[in-house]
Structure formats: structure tokens, C-alpha cells
Write a structure and sequence with these properties.
The structure is a single chain. This protein is mostly helical and 360 residues long. The chain has helices at residues 6-23, 33-39, 41-44, 50-62, 70-91, 102-114, 118-145, 154-182, 192-219, 227-253, 256-259, 265-268, 274-282, 285-294, 302-314, 317-336, 343-357; strands at 95-96, 99-100. 42% of the residues are buried.
Length: 360
């Protein structure tokens, strides 16, 4: 693996993974073809490809053939993609990365292709997007299984799939369930500790797996019980928490064009983020009432969003979350220090800092 600079290397991995996925035959085996085509739509719309980068750079820490982990890195990306497709349904989001979400695109397909109207078109879109996500799950597993006894030993491929099925699935989906349940609870009843636990389950778990799987593939292991696997996982786990906290900040403070979705959508959807919960704990009673009134609002004006952002800053909540992010990056670096020295190690360090400095 040749190294240039962080952004170039991350972009190169994204291009490699996208090409690998877009050339892969699995979606073309799906009938009807429009459903198979939708399986690749999020891949075509871009993305940071952090999970494949974690996997490939972690493999490069312990192997001079990190490219053997490409199928697993691609599987991690497609696994992430199906969670986005289903998450967009749950959150009722119409756009992702500035383009229609799968259920929106498929509803539009029904309208344009069959003249389906109103709620029936929307229901078609939701139903077909669920199937799209289901097929992407099968695709992720196929990406790993087809490399058994090729780029991967059969025991390594089985270990990676078992980890995905027995560990990542129940934890990640449990985190999603808790996140959705939060929206039905009184916000004052939700503790910061509960939110952090949800973030560990929903976001950090798959990032942890991506780094661990890279080391497992690089060392050709038949299980995940190895010291280097542990440290790689804990590096990604802590960096992943920092990543999600920055995501919550961007949901209020980002530039909408760079973010690729409406700024303030988390507030409008009454998403219970740590940033909001800490604001409600630290703000004055009047400011707290303003934020509470805004949560779940169908329409938030630019002026209201600007006032909410100012309350989040002035209450000290923004600074508290930023300090937490810095702590998680520091913890990530402690585990990174236990991993072998290589150019890939420097890329992983830069990746951890990118997660809290990014603006998209």
C-alpha cells in the first residue's frame, strides 16, 4: 500500500471500494432489476468510507498484503449501507447526501412508472426500501463468503462472518431500537449515560468490528481473541464515539450543502442527542423551555435554529461535548500506541482526528 497524504489516501480507498462494489455481480442477480439497481444507489452517491479505511489500514498494521482485506472492508461498507437505508425509513428522511433516500426514490419510481398516487406510492417506497436493505445484508455476507479459500482462509472468513452475525447484529440493532424508543420517552427521564450506551451500540460497534476484522484478516486468525485485535477495536470504538458526537454537533452547526441533509433535522425529529440533553441540563429555564418547544416542531425557521445554536453555545453544552470528543480521541490514541508501527498507524491517528474536525 502506497501512502501519499491522509485525504488522498482516504479518497483512494473510497474509489477502490466503490469500484469493487459497483463491479460486483450480486445486485445484477436480483429480479426485478430496479430493485437490484437500488442496492447500489447509496454507493453511487458517495460517502466517507470510514469503515473500509479502518479495515484496510488495520490490516496494513500487521500484514504486507492488506488488499486481501478488501472484500471484508467492502462488506463492512455494505453492512453500514443497509443500516442507513432502514434508518432513513425509521427517521422519515427524504434525502441523504443531497439525494433522495431509497424509500423516497422507490416511491417516485412507483409514481412515474405505474402512476401510483399518494400514500400508496409512499407505502410501495417503504416496502421496497425494506427489501433493499434486506438484500444488502445478504450482499455483505456474500462479499465475505465468496472469498473463503481465495483471499481469505475458510476459518478466517467464518470467524469474520460469525462476529458480524453473533456480535454486531444484535448490538447495533439494539442500539437502533433504544434510539427510537428515546423519542417516545420524556426527555428529562433520559440520562447522558443511556445516550452514550446507545451510541456505543449503534455506531461504535460497527467501527470497532471494521478495525478488528482488518487485523483478523491480516494475521489470518480464526477468532477475534487476540491482543492486537482488542487494541485495534478499542481504538476504533473510542474514535467512533467521537465521530458520533461530532455528527450531533454538525446536525445543528453545519453548512447544509456540505452536510448533505437539512441542518436542524435532528431537532425537528426530536432526536435525543447528548448535545441536546446536556443543553437542557445546563441552560436557563427560559432557554430550556425554548429548546423543548422546538423539539419535534414540523418547521424550524433559520432564526429559531440560530437561537437554538446560541443557547447550546452559551449554556456550555457545546464545549462539554467537544471536551468529551477530545477525551475519546485521547483514549483511541492510547490503544493505537499498542499497535505495530507503520505508515498505516499514522493514517489511523489522522483518521481519529478527522472524525472530530470534519464538517460533513
Amino acid at each position: 500500500m502506497q501512502y501519499k497524504d491522509f485525504k488522498s489516501d482516504l479518497s483512494e480507498i473510497a474509489s477502490q471500494i466503490d469500484s469493487y462494489l459497483l463491479d460486483h455481480p450480486f445486485p445484477s442477480t436480483v429480479n426485478p432489476s430496479w430493485l437490484g439497481n437500488e442496492m447500489s444507489s447509496y454507493t453511487k452517491s458517495g460517502g466517507k468510507r470510514l469503515r473500509p479505511a479502518l479495515c484496510l489500514w488495520s490490516a496494513a498494521l500487521v500484514s504486507d498484503q492488506p488488499e486481501l482485506a478488501q472484500s471484508v472492508a467492502s462488506a463492512a461498507e455494505i453492512f453500514h449501507t443497509w443500516t442507513l437505508v432502514h434508518d432513513d425509513i425509521i427517521d422519515r428522511d427524504a434525502t441523504r447526501r443531497g439525494l433522495p433516500t431509497s424509500h423516497t426514490a422507490l416511491a417516485n419510481f412507483a409514481r412515474e412508472e405505474h402512476g401510483t398516487k399518494g400514500n400508496e406510492a409512499d407505502h410501495f417506497g417503504l416496502s421496497m426500501a425494506i427489501l433493499t436493505g434486506d438484500l444488502q445484508q445478504a450482499w455483505a455476507l456474500r462479499l465475505i463468503s465468496e472469498q473463503a479459500n481465495k483471499d481469505l482462509t475458510s476459518t478466517t472468513a467464518l470467524a469474520v462472518m460469525d462476529r458480524l452475525l453473533s456480535h454486531v447484529y444484535p448490538i447495533l440493532l439494539g442500539g437502533e431500537a433504544i434510539d427510537v424508543e428515546f423519542e417516545h420517552r420524556e426527555i428529562d427521564s433520559i440520562s447522558p449515560e443511556e445516550i452514550l450506551k446507545m451510541l456505543e451500540m449503534k455506531t461504535a460497534c460497527l467501527l470497532e468490528f471494521s478495525a478488528q476484522a482488518g487485523v483478523v484478516v491480516g494475521l489470518k486468525l480464526d477468532n477475534f481473541d487476540h491482543e492486537l485485535v482488542h487494541h485495534a477495536g478499542q481504538f476504533a470504538y473510542n474514535a467512533g464515539l467521537a465521530f458520533q458526537l461530532q455528527d450531533d454537533i454538525l446536525g445543528v452547526f453545519a453548512d447544509e450543502k456540505e452536510l448533505g441533509k437539512p441542518v436542524g433535522s435532528d431537532i425537528a425529529a426530536r432526536k435525543v442527542t447528548l448535545l441536546i440533553v446536556e443543553t437542557l441540563k445546563m441552560a436557563s429555564q427560559d432557554d430550556k423551555s425554548f429548546i423543548l418547544d422546538l423539539l419535534g416542531s414540523n418547521s424550524i425557521s433559520i432564526e429559531q435554529l440560530s437561537q437554538a445554536a446560541e443557547i447550546i453555545k452559551s449554556s456550555g453544552a457545546l464545549e462539554k461535548i467537544q471536551n468529551m470528543m477530545a477525551h475519546y480521541v485521547q483514549q483511541a490514541e492510547i490503544h493505537l500506541a499498542e499497535l505495530p508501527n507503520s505508515p498505516a498507524k499514522e493514517r489511523l491517528k489522522e483518521l481519529a482526528h478527522f472524525m472530530i474536525k470534519r464538517n460533513f
